[in-house]
Amino acid sequence: MKASRFFIGTLKEAPADAEIVSHKLMMRAGMIRRVAGGIYDYMPIGLRSVRKVEAIVREEMNRAGALELLMPAVQPAELWQESGRWEQYGPELLRFKDRHERDFVMGPTHEEVVTDIARREIKSYRQLPVNFYQIQTKFRDEIRPRFGVMRGREFIMKDAYSFDKDLDGLAETYRKMYDAYVRIFTRIGLDFRAVAADNGSIGGSGSHEFHVIAETGEDDIAYCPSSDYAANVEAADALPLIAQRAAPTEALKKTPTPGAAKCEAVAQLLSIPLEKTIKSIVLATENEGAEPTIWLLMLRGDHSLNDIKTSKLPGLAGYRFATEAEIIEWFGTPPGYLGPIGTKKPVRVIADRTVANMSDFVVGTNEVDYHTTGVNWGRDLPEPEVADIRNVVAGDPSPDGKGALEICRGIEVGHVFQLGTKYSDSMGATFLDENGKPAPMQMGCYGIGVTRVLGAAIEQNFDDKGIIWPEAIAPFEVVICPMGYDRSDAVREQADKLYATLQQAGIDVILDDRGERPGVMFADWELIGVPHRIVIGDRGLKEGKLEYQGRRDTEATLLPVDEAADAVIGKVRAALGK
Amino acid sequence: MKASRFFIGTLKEAPADAEIVSHKLMMRAGMIRRVAGGIYDYMPIGLRSVRKVEAIVREEMNRAGALELLMPAVQPAELWQESGRWEQYGPELLRFKDRHERDFVMGPTHEEVVTDIARREIKSYRQLPVNFYQIQTKFRDEIRPRFGVMRGREFIMKDAYSFDKDLDGLAETYRKMYDAYVRIFTRIGLDFRAVAADNGSIGGSGSHEFHVIAETGEDDIAYCPSSDYAANVEAADALPLIAQRAAPTEALKKTPTPGAAKCEAVAQLLSIPLEKTIKSIVLATENEGAEPTIWLLMLRGDHSLNDIKTSKLPGLAGYRFATEAEIIEWFGTPPGYLGPIGTKKPVRVIADRTVANMSDFVVGTNEVDYHTTGVNWGRDLPEPEVADIRNVVAGDPSPDGKGALEICRGIEVGHVFQLGTKYSDSMGATFLDENGKPAPMQMGCYGIGVTRVLGAAIEQNFDDKGIIWPEAIAPFEVVICPMGYDRSDAVREQADKLYATLQQAGIDVILDDRGERPGVMFADWELIGVPHRIVIGDRGLKEGKLEYQGRRDTEATLLPVDEAADAVIGKVRAALGK
After folding, report:
1. Which residue of B has its CA nearest to A9?
2. Structure ipTM
3. Helix or strand or coil: residue B231?
4. Which residues, numbered 196 to 225 in chain A, qualify as contacts with chain B under a Cβ-Cβ cut-off of 8 Å?
5. Do A39 and B94 lie within an 8 Å CB cutoff?
6. Residues B450, B370: one domain?
7. H/E run at residue A281
8. Can you give the pTM of this predicted structure?
9. Could you tell me the CATH number of the domain that includes residue A526?
10. Per-residue model confidence as pLDDT tens digits over A421-466
11. How far is C-alpha A512 from the chain's CA centre?
12. Are residues B442 and B485 in the same domain?
């Protein structure tokens, strides 16, 4: 491509609504333009990167045996009513009526449509397994679209849906998709982790998220550097930090702790480690026609409650924090000095796994300005119910026993789910099995946010000059910047020759023949983030040299004119693993 | 591709709502499935053909210098309000509100969005010309979607929009697009014609439609077999059929024609050719605060009025047919025996070009059961206003003077328009010209109905067994049908070997390893329309032969095993022009 025939629209400043670096840089590099909140044009230079992501995704989906089809953006409400999501889905589901007043939605996802295909087309186990995918425009009416393509309303997704005859089949398909995802993000050139995810509201059993590691990520990920264990902090198992409970050594003692309502203050006041203190969290669950059940959850002073784990415990679904009135009624004191010993009314005590193995610990006394030290299970209070109710922290043992966890931040770009029979049950997608009996299909679903990948790649790869694209999804792999293309025959001839050579070698190269000043040229291509740059000037040519600079290099290297093409071709191919 | 890993869903019967052959065959071949009225899934086999059309379109657009981008499906109402189309567009424009009650539309076309891009991004004549295109999903809320992908609601289009600094530039860009369209439809392998089109309601000056010739087409096209002249019948110039008016030879005579109100009856009654009779059509146009103007349009008895040409004549925009009361008031008689001589009140007479050169012709006498024969211009009534007001008919001289017109039916699959400044004016898309003065951009727009092309290709290419795909857009180019793939080692080995050889040669081949009976296999692939089939069986192999049959061949040819691959590769490449 020659720049004079292309469309380059770089900006000096990002618009005010661009909060994060990928949004700013995609706007400044002219990759996207805003049409409405969360709705963008992909300009030619941006679409080149989108298409490269799509091509990699498509190749790997095909390799994994998935079949591409295309489902419509506009879906009839009837299907969503059948699955129950017409009611369940919030206002993110854009609903509208057509000219005949029939209800439709703009598809944010396609479980309903694909299950409708499966129940009509698949009659026999002989047709299974099958895995359909599409690369398609979705719409999700976010209440506050922002972060550019990271949380847009209209976006491109690859979504795949698999149908198997049994759970073994589903597990095998799931593994194939997992492996395909690993290949996809590896080929794109991203630093990523597959993390065990909480299933959230999508339902089913077993799922992984694929996260691009970036400081600006929205999610906290716990991972083990010495193994492949990784999980969303929401879902990571928190093991007991004390393997076995030690025997009591202290006597129970009521100790004044004036003004020390928090564990940190108690530890400081009593000159004990924070790890000896206990945080008491009071929850309530409703009982129809009766007073609520009050729960006391006990965490070590330096730990925090995991909301999702807690709400999965028997009896705690839909819990809320207790009110101050309830706390006074059950504990006889306002919050701040609460503890499990001597409550006014019975409470259900749950101890975190670590707390359950502690001895000689400190709890509130249910009296303002007093704590109790030397507390021991069995001796001073009954053995507790034990559960994993806390968030993991850096340094925790990895659940796979292979080292200590670290915490990093990630951007979710892919998700694989084992849906099971959630949709086949509600929508009646059955097949005749080997015995001629109807059975529900076992479904999986597998998404990649194609346009989101671009944002995530930038969040992971940028500097103060602009984007630094991985070769595989760069809008161009190489830029040739001739200094004086319009003035110097030698420069022009050399630039044209190199351009032709690189093109012939299958390199995605752009020749900047716009006649801009070198400063403008360089700034544009650094902002756009082309990974390899060659500068051709009269001065260098006199010595038979060109200037090569990789986008991450701090300075240029001189290359002999005759070797430049091969050198650059080698670099690009090496980066692409060719 | 192996059929066992693919998804084939042929049907014995088409659904009842499928009226035309392409709809029936696409359903039966399992290419599409209905989701809602005018909304379809493209199943894997159908999507293969869609993608092949897209690839050809993309290659030729790029070759013509157009730049691919991607605009959103969901567009803010503000842009449509600016252009004026928010009001003008009918209920085909799907309007809806987002969760914040803001108005949006599902884009049926993208003039507004692209003009918004141009006015923001293009500041100077140095950035012109530029031509943006996309291949994108559109929605048009048809009142009665039907004919499958031919008149769907959700469909895929390639739409391009060009911006030039002046009309010369627009003409050049237009010509480039026209040429690209010719290459596209030629490569796809369709019998098509580019026809001069009436601009209809889209406005601007100069446009061509690209029609696939098919008996089931919706449009009548006049074309000259001995030149490249072609025009929609609506727009084709109707030349006078009489080069020069002959001198009068008959006297004016009032002749009884009892009961003969139609030209055909008059001709029969008086034993004269229909070409001597005149059809009188009475139109009216309103005059505010005064009585209407009454027009008498005179056509030869065998001709018909062209509504579009008529409404473009000065004073006749918005005309209507006169009421019976008006006819009685102006002509003194009810319809049936009307004529230009001796009206009660003055009427404006317009003669068709042919009528203007007639002599000794027959008109109504404005008296029931009477006509006047031997009528001559100049002698019996004043010279008329002359205009082209009729539809061309087969046998008319071609306007380019190169032969006689024929009429055929066509399916519109592409359209190129010179929009001029319609949108740049209403939306303020200006640039600074060479003199630093703001000027409106000259726009063109260029559409191809990607999914419609599939339907049109089928309407042109089918038989009673099913579809007959042109090689370039066939879901597969070659199918290998082994007889007894699961039973015969020889058959399986030969099939696998041929499959591998064809794949290596870049042929898009499917191996039917499903183990279906030959009758089922053959019927499936004939229905699906794969252009080349090879049958491998034990009996043939014993003689070292395979069976080849082209989809249009009435019987199979035996090919020596060793020559089969080369023969088929040669046939496919020849068909693709490689």
Report:
1. B121
2. 0.88
3. strand
4. none
5. no
6. no
7. strand A278-287
8. 0.88
9. 3.40.50.800
10. 999 999 999 999 999 999 999 999 999 999 999 999 999 999 999 9
11. 37
12. no
